[in-house]
Amino acid sequence: xxxxxxxxxxxxxxxxxxxxxxxxxARPYRKDLAVAAGLLLLITLGEMAEPYLIMIIIDQHxxxxxxxxxxxxxxxxxxxxxxxxxxxxxxxxxxxxxGQKIMLDLxxxxxxxxxxxxxxxxxxxxxxxxxxxxxxxxxxxxxxFTAGVSAVFQDFFTLVVAGFVLMRMDWRxxxxxxxxxxxxxxxxxxxxxxxRENFRKVRENT
Amino acid sequence: MTPTSxxxxxxxxxxxxxxxxxxxxxxxxxLLATNLVQQCIPLLLKYAIDGLQSKAAITxxxxxxxxxxxxxxxxxxLRYGWRMGFFGMGRHVEYGMRxxxxxxxxxxxxxxxxxxxxxxxxxxxxxxxxTVRESLGFGWLTTxxxxxxxxxxxxxxxxxxxxxxxxxxxxxxxxxxxxxxxxRKVRQGTREAQAALDDLSQAATESFRGAxxxxxxxxxxxxxxxxxxxxxxxRDKNMAIVRLEALYWPLLSVISGVAKLMLIYMGGTKVALxxxxxxxxxxxxxxxxxxxxxxLQIIWPVLALGFSTNIFVRGKVSVERLNEVYxxxxxxxxxxxxxxVIHGAPVLTxxxxxxxxxxxxxxxxxxxxxxxxxxxxxxxAGRTGSGKSTLLRLPxxxxxxxxxxxxxxxxxxxxxxxxxxxxxxxLVTQEPFLFSESILDNIAFGAEHPDLxxxxxxxxxxxxADFVESLPQAYGSMxxxxxxxxxxxxxxxxxxxxxxxxxxxxxLLDDAFSAVDTGTExxxxxxxxxxxxxxxxxxxxHRVSTLGLCDRVLVLDQGRITEEGIHSELMQKEGFYFGMAxxxxxxxxxxxxxx
Lengths: 206, 595
What we know:
The structure holds two protein chains of two kinds. By secondary structure, chain A is mainly alpha-helical. Helices cover 85% and strands 0% of the residues of chain A.
């Protein structure tokens, strides 16, 4: 892979450049993205309600021997589950639908662009390479978009909401629980770098 | 599925699998140990909580908490063990099967490659083998993990509260069925989407290939519209999968949620009873929390049981696709190699040879006889499709004739061991295939320790030495995309050098000098005669200047010999050969006139 010019760039600036490029592609779909983010926030709230309800059931009813008080909260728990179910189904169709729409537009644009090129362009670029761009690279972009966007939003919301609830319940225990997060982040970073190196080796050998 | 048919399907896989049984056993043991530790964690939690509630000494509580921490650490180590065991086993089996596949592909005759597309064989060698690896590593892992975790968890849960265990697990029992059914539908959808993706890439490829024509006729708008339609069809197939998957995960989490709800309501009531002092019907808070943890950790294995059936189904399909290659009949099988050659017999004798292409039923050789002596050069002429190239594929048994007999040194080629037979002769084609390796490795093809002096000599005879030695890295220069680009004539001469390195007794040249100019060609032929004086040469050409360098020339037409003799004799006959010579000299004069 000696002739790959990207290799000389350091990884960080490459990632940043890639993200900026991706953000530019996403601009026309701001509205869809906002809807996706909103849905994910509502889903996270529903998911966070479940352990919170369990806390109420245990602390305020079970621990006090209050059997009659359990049922209404069990009902709320069921409602929270159904809420998450409905929103998650909606969100999946919405976000993946958006991804498909982006692919459709992107493919049409690249296809038209290629056909607008001069004959010299076709001398220089083999058909196989052009086809790969229009079909498979767009496919990868979509995966990055739908899976990546969902994961980033959801993880972010979960972190914020769960952190908030933890702190409100007991700030000392809360701080203790999140004290290991920087270490975890550091491990992830190391792993990511090693994994990337190995993936590249695998790709060079296939 | 009966056991016998399964053992038939997996017969090629089994030996590779057995070779890795140590890794497999390591994986199973590490996995079982992990799960056993896993089961102890909720119990440790229970003792810690119950200890806190009964105001036990803080050191006791800390001991339980410390043990729980130790258990998690031990799990980390054991997890590494089963990952190495199962996934390592999968990788090793994949490697062994890929080597076997490669060996098999190398042994298959030319006819097999005419019937099967390279792309299809490539997909078997890559993606089907990857699927087999996954279903071995991941499939077995999931199966063992699920079954052992489920069994152990149920034992521990029943130990805490048998009645509650039943009610909690009841909703979970539908999960494996749901996973397997929905999984099948998603797979069906994925297959359709894959076909639509193939259509899309086909449409793009064709369109780009015809880009110049499309531009010349200004058909871009229609082309864009056509592509968009195929693109939309692909989108629709994908959305069908999305709608299934959108239900899939949320539905699974609702069902496991119902199980949690059962535990919270029924278990919670019991704990509340205990709080009121009813120890007989009640349960401790510690048991309740432990039950909750057990429930959480049984959900995934139950789901995974459904996944593993899907994984195995996919793996089996791939194994069957691979079997088609492993079981492909090699029509050309090794001879016994016991009979001896006859001394003094001609190098090559063809007796009443007929050849009919099996697919098209076209007869290209029809009762052909010829013989070729040691050191003799025989030229073959004839129009396209007259059977020349087919004839050159007979001596090395790249194909076998439909009728008649091919003899090398008086011995039927079917009596020869293939390895010896194929080292005996060497075929150079018009458009040779070169590897993206160094020039040295291309000439000394397949040799473990290339002999540089020999390589240089071969290059000199092929009139390639001056060019190669002018390159900065000379014989170490790489060919292909990232290296030197050779012209058509240089490729032909390199292929000739490659076959000389083998020092063949019979050299078969199939229009092998078509891109080399006449002067160079004459030099090469002179050099060849000097370097390999005993080698017999069978040479196909469309140029009289080339054929004129042969001792004897045959003209083929519709698989029969129509003219035979030396150059001067054939020129007098005024047949096909004479026509060829006249066209060539006219063309040369025209060329001179243009200059």
